[in-house]
Amino acid sequence: MVSHITQCTKTLCLDEGFEVEKESLFEKKFWYFIIPSLILLGLSITLELLTDSVLLSQVLAAASILLSGYGILKEAIEDVLSKKITANILMLVAGIASFFILHGQEGAMAILLYAIAEYLEELTTEKSKNAIKELLELAPDDALLKIEDSYEKVPTETVKIGEIIGIKPGMKAPLDGIIVKGKSYFDESAITGESLPIFKEENDEIFAASINNDSFVDIEVIRESSNTVVAKIAESIKLAQQNKSDSERFIEKFAKYYTPIILISALLVMIIPTVVFSLDFNVWFYRGLILLVVSCPCALTLSTPLANIAALTKLAKEGILVKGNKFIEIAKNIELIAFDKTGTLTEGNLKVFNIINYSSNNNNKQEILKIAASLEILSEHPIGKAIVYQAKQMQLPLYNVEDFRITKGKGIKGVIQGEVYYVGSKNYLEELKIDLPDDIFEETELSGTIPILLGNNKTIMGIITIRDVLRVSAPLLVDGLKKRGYKSVLISGDNQLVCNTIGECLDIDSYYGELLPDQKLEEIENFKKKFNGVAMVGDGINDAPALALSDLGIAIGASATDLTLETADVIIMSDDLKKIITFFDITKRTNRIIRQNIWTSIIVKVAFAILTVLGFMTLWLAVGIADMGVSLLVLINGMTIFRYKIKFKELSLENLESNAKLILCQSCETKKIIPQHHGRDMIEKDGKLICWRKLLSSEDLEPCQEELPLFCPKCNNELHVI
Question: What is the DSSP string of 611-644?
């Protein structure tokens, strides 16, 4: 069927955006046409079998065609005016020509079956159409615009960036924004695929189409209606069809030349046996008509686009945005997946891991943290913020600092109570000629943390180690990929020791640290020489070049920069890394279905063409099975993508995230930082600290049995987690 993508998938409107085609009278009253057509055809067959009224039986068959073939005739005329040769034309020619050899009943049966099959196609593709329509209609059309102390209902397209809108409980957010007043739980499942409501408070971002579950909130609009996240999702699915896969482009090109060849072949089947071999014209004319119908490539050309549009829609509903069909096809070649660390495998949330005391002046760990935080509160560095945050959690009063100075990229200096203090990297303190013990970094090397040194004019006083927090879903991701046969590698600009710790914790195959953006590119190029397909997962600006160079770029959208989102081929709309496995599972299933559809179409077409030439085929059977039967089978097989179920149970973070700030001994007032294991804070349970992975109720990851007793090392009394 030439140009069938417009013809056979018209209900999806792939070539014309998502404009819904207006239903004709025939489509609205389909069965009012089909049932009388079936009755007339039955009368025609009965008359021919029981009487000699051949002419009347053919007239009844023609009347049957006029009813059931209304839609086919209408579309065939449109195709002719558009200079296209489609299945409508082939079916109409075959149906009408059957009357010339008094096979009108078979021609009428073929047209009737074709019309019913077309109608069933419409019903089958309705789910895809409705799914896409749901995406387009996720966000409400009206918003509550705040004007002084009241709210006015206005169209969302009139609301500008910076204006304040209100969101009532039970109401969908009409636009993207930042909460400026109030707090509530929001259901973001329509955008991110997360089934559990997420608590949002002031300064948190809200996506359009999120449902407010609890309390009234005000948000400041940060994107206009045409530029919201949900609008981009819907728009991307429209535009994704422009990024057609290689198989789609091949099939379209194939169909362009295939149908004229079949027309010529059918004519040769009609003419050569009768002219050259003097065989019965009626027999070979009939076989030529059947060959015309059997060879329509409708099923073949339907095999790829419908499966792809179903996959794109299913992925979007799971919170995964794919920028084109070709990336679904590329996914099948991926063998290695490279990950950035910070903001991808980790939360990008730096925390104080430990405090090591080297002072000879009996300064305890709290004093080291207190001095460092007093200096760092005057800086804007992320590491400094982590140190200040920890001091506030431990309720440490800070010192006044004089003569504060920053040495960019190295450290800071300040005077506290007449004494000069320095906070910074190892190189910074070495430049200041401060002696560092040889074994000073052994503990930090083992823990894979970032060491921040505190010293005075004479000596080093202590080390505060900093570490990022591992995402809960990171071990599930790496373990799931490994089970599916993918290789994994970590490429990061972070310290090599830190990368080693994360890599070993997650059981990643190899890990490379201290890489600049251009060095990441070199690594991706090297990987591409060794593997058939390389995917890159990242979120930062420095990841954009590697995302672009890789065969498949995947961005973690919740934390990704605008440049990264523009560069990536696939965007995970939430922080849930398990969605990457969902992406590969769905694309693998889609590519398998496409292969099944293509080979089924080819095998059936070839087999029925051979049977036709040998005389073992009838016109109505050719239509019912070889043409529309296979087409319907292809459609139904493609729609099974919607039945995909997530392989992982939903993780409840409530048990895995503790609000505890520190460990306190009430007897000697010793305060300690809560230790980490497997990249996250340990959790108190039954008087012990246990690894968070022990509480992970997942069949896909072996739990960790690490536990620590809660006893003070100084006075041996019970410690309390507060």
Answer: HHHTT---HHHIIIIIIHHHHHHHHHHHHGGGG-
Q: Is 207 exposed, middle or buried (0-12, 13-18, 19+ CB in 10 A)?
A: buried
The CATH superfamily holding the domain 317-346+471-583 is: HAD superfamily/HAD-like (3.40.50.1000)
Q: Which of 208, 213, 145, 206 is nearest to 179 (CA)?
A: 206
Q: Does domain 142-227 have CATH number 2.70.150.10?
A: yes
| Other beta carbons within 10 Å of 95 | 30
The burial of 402, by beta-carbon neighbours within 10 Å (0-12 exposed, 13-18 middle, 19 or more buried), is given as exposed
Select from 657, 653, 673, 651 the least CA-distant residue to 719: 673
**Per the residue annotation, which of 79, 187, 218, 340 is the catalytic one?**
340
Q: Which two tokens stand for residue 674?
A: 């809560």
Tokens of 330: 């590329």
> Which residue ranges make up each domain of the chain?
4-134+238-311+588-643, 142-227, 317-346+471-583, 349-469, 663-721
The pLDDT tens digits of the residues spanning 199-246 come to 888 998 898 888 898 889 999 999 888 888 777 666 655 555 455 667
CA distances from 143 to 1, 139, 223, 593 (A): 47, 10, 13, 42
Q: What is the per-residue pLDDT across 524-578, written as a single tens digit (0 to 9) for each?
A: 999 999 999 999 998 866 677 888 889 999 988 765 556 566 778 888 888 889 8
What confidence tens digit (pLDDT) does each residue in 475-512 have? Answer: 889 988 999 999 999 998 777 877 888 888 889 999 99
> Which residue in 502, 493, 440 sits closest to 467, CA to CA?
502
**In this structure, are residues 542 and 564 in contact, taking their beta carbons and an 8 Å threshold?**
no
Q: Are 104 and 61 in contact (CB under 8 A)?
A: yes
Written as six digits, the tokens of 573 are 């709309």
Report how far residue 540's alpha carbon sits from residue 42's, in angstroms, rounded to the nearest whole number. 69
C-alpha gyration radius of the chain: 34
Cα–Cα distance for residue pair 89/588, rounded to 1 Å: 36
Query: Could you tell me the CA-to-CA distances from 367 to 220, 454, 685 in Å, in that order?
Result: 42, 11, 30
What CATH class has 349-469?
alpha beta
The 10 Å Cβ neighbour count of residue 25 is: 12
Q: What is the pTM of this model?
A: 0.70
- What does DSSP say about strands 688-690 and 552-556: parallel, antiparallel, or unpaired? unpaired
Active site residue 569: no
